[in-house]
Amino acid sequence: MTPSQWQCPQCSREFSRKNQRHACDAGNSADVIRDRPQSVVEVYQAIADFVNKLGKVETIAKDRYVLFRSVRIFADLSIMKDVVRVAIHIGRRIDNPIFIKVVDDGRQFTHVAKIGSLHELKEIETLLSEAYEFSLF
């Protein structure tokens, strides 16, 4: 744990801010893909496999939502009926038609895409890597 981090005394999860509001239970990612079409399961699993190769990543799952976090959240997913909605948080704006929405909150840009195939996932993998690196600082 770095000096600027705080560890929850109940769940031992580490955060960048003291007394960070959170749910101590990180959930079970298998629950979010239960009863989903095989294509959605494949896309979700490919995303999870990819981000977990980037470094130390915590996965938080609840209902149909999954967050991927290093020091901060760098990507979040919504498991939908036939696609995985991916929000990627990076320090710059990217203009690419795969993104259905881009939001600038003053600190970062959130790029949102609906990913329905492994081919579409390939288009955003480098940005997932960039988001992971961005989240470390």
Automatic annotation (TrEMBL):
Domain DUF5655 residues, every copy: 30-135
Pfam families: DUF5655
Protein name: DUF5655 domain-containing protein
Species of provenance: Rheinheimera riviphila
